[in-house]
TrEMBL record:
<protein>
    <submittedName>
        <fullName>TraU family protein</fullName>
    </submittedName>
</protein>
<dbReference type="InterPro" id="IPR009649">
    <property type="entry name" value="TraU"/>
</dbReference>
<dbReference type="Pfam" id="PF06834">
    <property type="entry name" value="TraU"/>
</dbReference>
Length: 330
């Protein structure tokens, strides 16, 4: 009888993944789930139109800008700068869980693919966190049809562009050296000690871009995998999101819209201060965004209530800094 009960129970567990799933996928509402104040400050012609308490990065100070026109002749324009919500980074312990798209794909749940969390309590020799990550094209303003007349604002709809479950380099720290062999250099204790300065800078303002191998209190940006040295799953999720953001820059799948007012520039060495992350899952924080490496005690409270479903899966809306030259055309 017990054997029959065990077989029935096992069958239910295997074939009804939804009943036992911790994924809890919910589609991100581009109106109600977005931190609209995180797009500020907005500056036009060097004048702040809408201000913000959050530190700003590399805004254009001159009211007039110039970009190449026909035949390479510089054409004048008006400088505009703002923060654009344009991507979603999912960090999930449940593989194939599209937590911000409202879809649980199930799929491979091998020991390697599943997320892990080893805490700092009794018997934990080496705390670490591992998760899969997804890169979602989510141009909020384009989806809503807002500001589409500004050429620097991305248009189009949402799309799933990258899933680390399909990337073997994400699963293995040693194999990832194929993409970033310099991780061997930046793994030494002396260079990691410099990350303290980055953590201090991120706590009171913007992270230090010259310390590109650091993510402040979140730890090292290397290796570019889903494994980070922390027993805190909320901090770990933010660190994995930062890792994926750097990895995508390194693979030239992202470009930086704040380097030049005339074009989007490839930055294989990321500029951390040009990004903000808004937590949108498991709980949407529509009041603020976090900087890369910002100490977790400043923002993690209440983000993953322990008794609620799906709190091992996170999603972040990426705000990028945009410096744009609005060209005048007769």
């Amino acid at each position: 009888m017990n054997r029959v009960f065990f077989v029935v129970f096992l069958g239910i567990f295997i074939f009804s993944g939804k009943a036992f799933s911790l994924c809890d996928p919910r589609f991100v509402n581009p109106v109600t789930d977005v931190c609209w104040s995180c797009a500020f400050p907005i500056k036009i012609g060097g004048i702040t139109v809408l201000g913000s308490d959050m530190p700003d990065a590399d805004a254009l100070s001159s009211p007039v800008c110039f970009c190449p026109g026909p035949a390479g002749i510089p054409v004048p324009g008006i400088s505009v700068s703002f923060w654009e919500p344009y991507r979603i980074l999912e960090v999930v312990s449940d593989p194939w869980c599209m937590v911000a798209e409202g879809v649980d794909m199930g799929g491979i749940t091998s020991r390697t693919a599943r997320g892990t969390l080893v805490g700092t309590g009794y018997g934990a020799n080496s705390p670490h966190y591992f998760a899969q990550a997804h890169y979602i094209v989510f141009p909020v303003w384009g989806i809503l049809g807002l500001l589409t007349d500004i050429p620097c604002v991305e248009s189009g709809g949402w799309d799933v562009a990258y899933m680390t479950e399909l990337d073997p380099l994400w699963q293995n720290d040693m194999q990832s050296l194929i993409l970033n062999p310099e991780a061997l250099v930046f793994g030494n204790a002396l260079l990691q000690l410099a990350c303290t300065a980055d953590a201090t800078a991120a706590a009171f303002g913007l992270p230090r871009d010259e310390l590109f191998w650091c993510m402040g209190q979140w730890g090292s940006a290397y290796p570019l995998t889903g494994r980070v040295a922390t027993g805190n799953k909320i901090l770990g999720a933010a660190a994995v999101a930062g890792r994926l953001l750097y990895k995508l820059n390194r693979e030239l799948l992202l470009c930086d819209r704040a380097v030049s007012p005339c074009s989007c520039v490839q930055t294989p060495i990321w500029i951390k201060s040009h990004y903000r992350l808004q937590i949108v899952r498991p709980k949407a924080n529509t009041g603020s965004a976090i900087r890369i490496g910002e100490p977790s005690p400043l923002w993690e409270a209440g983000q993953a209530p322990p008794l609620e479903k799906g709190t091992d899966n996170f999603a972040f809306i990426v705000f990028r800094k945009v410096n744009c030259c609005l060209i005048w055309t007769p």
